[in-house]
Amino acid sequence: MGRVGGNPPSTNPIASIFAWTRGLEHRGNLDGNKDLVRYAQVMEEACIETVDAGKITKDLAGCIYGIKNVKPDQYLNTEDFLDAINETFGKMWK
């Protein structure tokens, strides 16, 4: 990930993930590919579960605490957030 002002970015990639998963789910439905449909659905669930577990990016923390009140221990940078989603997905996919 690139750095902005020397700090690692902390932006929420969920909208991009859901754009892809919705497309993958649609493709899976068109092709009758149940595994692709399941993959897309589990990925979305993993995103939601990760946020529900309190693992969030700075923009989401700003919505909760007010951007001026956000402290570094209240959010993850983008890369760590994606890692958290991946970890959650791995547990759910089994």
TrEMBL record:
Superkingdom assignment: Eukaryota
InterPro entries: Isocitrate_DH_NADP (IPR004790), IsoPropMal-DH-like_dom (IPR024084)
Pfam family membership, one: Iso_dh
Gene Ontology CC: one annotated term: mitochondrion
Needed co-factor(s): Mg(2+); Mn(2+)
Domain Isopropylmalate dehydrogenase-like: 11-85
Presence of the UniProt keyword Chloroplast in the record: no
Coiled coil start-end: none
GO-annotated biological processes: glyoxylate cycle; isocitrate metabolic process; NADP+ metabolic process; tricarboxylic acid cycle
Keyword field contains Oxidoreductase: yes
UniProtKB keywords: Glyoxylate bypass, Magnesium, Manganese, Metal-binding, Oxidoreductase, Tricarboxylic acid cycle
Molecular function via GO: isocitrate dehydrogenase (NADP+) activity; metal ion binding
Similarity field: Belongs to the isocitrate and isopropylmalate dehydrogenases family.
The protein's name: Isopropylmalate dehydrogenase-like domain-containing protein
Organism: Ridgeia piscesae
